[in-house]
Specification:
Elements lengths: L2 H15 L1 H7 L4 H22 L15 H16 L7 H13 L4 H14 L7 H22 L5 H27 L8 H6 L4 H6 L4 H26 L4 H24 L12 H18 L17
Helix pairs in contact: 1-3, 1-5, 2-12, 3-4, 3-5, 3-6, 3-7, 4-5, 4-6, 6-7, 7-8, 8-11, 8-12, 11-12, 12-13
Amino acid sequence: MNQAMLVEQATRTIQAGSQSFAAATRLFDPPTRESAVLLYAWCRHCDDVVDGQALGHGQLQGDRTGAMEKLQWLREQTLAACRGHPGGDPVFEGLAEVVHRHRIAPALPMEHLAGFAMDVQGMHYATLDDTLLYAWRVAGVVGVMMARVMGADRPGTLDRACDLGLAFQLTNIARDVVEDAAIGRVYVPGDWLAEEGIVGLEGVLDPARREALARVAARLVAAAEPYYTSAVAGIGELPLRCAWSIATARGIYRQIGRKVRLQGERAWDGRVATSRMEKLWLVARGAAVALAAHGIALPPRPAGLFTRPL
């Protein structure tokens, strides 16, 4: 498949799989957008293969039989692609192009697959540290790879890209806690749930426990805030259009977290999202954040935040 067809297919994938990310990538310059959608297509494909779903949809009906074998196949295909042998599959051809073009270490996509392994193995998240490790693997490492796509290579900038990925994932966990529990997964720290008297999957799914669950979700949204704050400092290190896009994505996901907190026990009556008008406002605000961040030296990263291992 030629490059143009690869990008066209990947663009359709991102439009169907994530409206928020699709909105943000429209602000990229064409070469960066091309690499971003190719990388996203690989991430989305891996998630879909492991969960037996399509473009992130149909989780409840997803066929998860043979998940460990599927994961091993993804590992083999991914490693081959990183070594320049994608084998003709468009998704892995796209990954091979991105890895080569931006000199992304193979350890990073392999670490992303380690996050899916945590799902397959039924990992129990007892503490916030456990949740942050998962968030690093499924989102923080993607932030690092995206930063490489945007030309960043300074360790401090990559740290802030990781922070933004962690903030996104903590927000997602808060928003999707009931939906995730319906397929047997709970990423919220178990000790937080215990403090609210919520026991096991049944407790998370119990409508009578929604008020208590809302307090836990609000706590998770609050835990994301230091990472959103830290991420701002790295935005100024990016090319201006990239900075605008990332500032916009940050604003959209942060607003989703605020809505989860404000809606309280009603947060899971429907999927929390930003409206079209809110997105337009956040695009404009993202431009202001990006302009303000440019020209400011990268300050020291706040102490006590998760430290990326790669």
